[in-house]
Amino acid sequence: MDADCDLMATREMRTRPPGKPGVTGSFVGIGSTLISATILILAAIWGAHLHHQTWDATEPIRFRGDITNAYNQGRRSAEVGLWDTYDKVAATSRKNREGRIDYSLDYPPLRLAMAHYWYRWTSEKFPDVKDWQNTRQFNSPLLLMNEVLLAMAAAATFGLVHLARRWQAKHRLGDANPTFHTGLIASAIGAALVWLSPPAMLVGFGWPQWDIAVPAFFLTSLFLACRNAWVLAGVVIAIGSLFKGQTLVGVPLLAIWPIVAGRPLAAVRFLIGFLLAAGVIMTPFAMHKGHSPARSEIVWFGLAGLLPWLLGIARPRAGNIRWFWWIAPAAIVVAVCTMAGLIAAWLIGAAIGGAAAILVYILAQKLPWRHQLTLPALGLVVAIWSTALLSDASWNWLKIGILWGSDHYQAMVMGAPSNLAAILPQFQVNRPSLVAFTCPDWLWSYEVTWKALLRSIFVIGSVMCAIAMGIHYRRRNPAFLLAAATCWLLFVTFPAQIHERYVLYPAIASACVIAMGFGWTMMHIAIALIAVLPVLHGMLGAGQHALFLADTMEPGFGARLFQYVRVTHPGMGWALITITLVCLWKSMDLRRPKVLKESPGA
Questions:
Q1: Which of 317, 387, 471, 486 has the fewest CB atoms within 10 Å, i.e. is most exposed?
Q2: β-strand 101-102 against 435-438: which pairing, if any?
Q3: Coil, helix or strand for 308?
Q4: Regions of the chain where pLDDT drops below 50
Q5: For residues 341 and 295, what is the distance between their CA atoms, to the nearest angstrom?
């Protein structure tokens, strides 16, 4: 009897017009919408209250070194000028005791800009204050920014879970189109788990640091890519990468999986968006005062890239005017550059204009209109980056703000992360520069350090995740989200020199896997709980743990909590390694998804 009812319901949903649910489906849709709205509203109110309370409760154990450093970096950039900061740092840097250059600045451009404007804001609001203050009002811009970033991550999680649940419904219903309410409850739960995430509260409102930006920008970019907004996805993750350099981990992932999924043009559009946003952001840092000629040349390079697209809107096909695509843009750029007296830009402008004209003409004849909108971005990418490469641009923003941050530490671990790199010192491996093994002479005589070995494990695992993402996406399998989260698990589990705060990345990214069912929801909760331990260890060890929650809990609670948390390091790393390998194994399960049996509205 039940089987007959299920068959009749399936036939009804197959025969109804797409997007128009039946009577029962309408009631289910209204109920799902109300339940999901209630979950989101309650989570938003409760979460905002907990974020506020986290700042107050963690005052005795606040890690003040990071936020004080941000304030000092903002002061320095305000004194020397934001655009000139990297060049000034490079000119005044000195070598440390180990003979390595110490720049004392590892902030990417957007993070430096954040510190710069925060210092200027505090100078206006608190004119008599000269040093960082441990008050909510003094740090309110940074706390508000973390609030926005966490809301951004929650919204992206909602969208990704909703998309994955609709994939599941399509597999179950065959050719029927799932309605909007399909998966709303699961999506709301996923967003609530991110908004109420304990490690996010500790890192974002207790520490505080700005690591929430990494999963926020990555998940948003991933959602935009799934919605076919590839250029915008590249723009978003470029902004995140120039705010927190660790976001760059997601760039190869988003560039590889569309190729595996049979959409190489999507990867090209993504890279165009990434290079466009990165170029626009780096321009004032690379082409400031001493590089003023480059700012003039970029105008003509921009015309060289944009003009062929503007002239090609009509997409002329008459053979007698094809020569116009080859000559006119280059001629116009050459004429303008000559009249402006930019002799140095004459040949460069002609070459770029001619090359862009040829490229745009070829693409305009083959691409649909919606893809042609990518061509102006391509022209600007060519203009900006060719200007930077061919002119006297400064690259200190890249060398200091991005690259130096991953090389200036020589310790195996930073802080108290419980991962493989933290376990290895128990086996007499306490420096990443130690040689792990030497390749035989007949193969390739080369010494492989532990840092290179651990990083290679991560890189190989990331490529496997990207390949799995492409295959799962092509089959519309929710395991696509598991593969994306596994990449961040690999990032915090295997490489050396990982901070304890970085466990926050998979703790937020893994919230998307609740689309795969209850068991994976428990897996996300386990990852989030594991991520709390190293963060608490770092905060309790650096602060006055005896005063932590002394008013609300029994005396000595903080000291006892520190003792409990301390014994989990680094042994908890074995649990993290196990979870990572399980997630990697399930991500590489490339079998087609099974037919579901439950209702798609859950």
A1: 317
A2: unpaired
A3: helix
A4: 1-20, 23, 175, 291-296, 300, 305, 309, 312-326, 340-343, 346, 596-602
A5: 14
Strand-pair partners of 101: 95
| Beta strands, E only, 90-221 | 94-95, 101-102
Residues 6+ apart with CB under 8 A from 1: none
Q: How far is CA 584 from CA 482, 487, 581, in A?
A: 8, 8, 5
8 Å CB contact between 466 and 252: yes
How long, in residues, is the chain?
Answer: 602
d(CA 59, CA 78): 28
Pairing of strands 447-449, 435-438: antiparallel
Q: From residue 338, how far is each of 149, 301, 335, 470 by CA, in Å?
A: 48, 13, 5, 49
pTM of the model: 0.85
Cβ count near 7 (within 10 Å): 10
In whole angstroms, give the CA distance from residue 498 to residue 492: 6
- Token pair, residue 602, equals 């859950």
Mean pLDDT of the chain: 80
Q: How far apart are CA 328 and CA 434, in angstroms?
A: 60
Q: How far apart are CA 14 and CA 484, in angstroms?
A: 32
- pLDDT tens, residue by residue, 401-420: 888 876 667 777 888 888 88
Residues 550, 552: Cα–Cα separation, whole Å: 6
Nearest 5°: the CA angle 195, 48, 535 is 60
Sequence-separated (6 or more) residues with CB below 8 Å from residue 416 = 422, 500, 534, 537, 538, 541, 569, 570
Exposed/middle/buried for residue 91 (C-beta within 10 Å: 0-12, 13-18, 19+): exposed
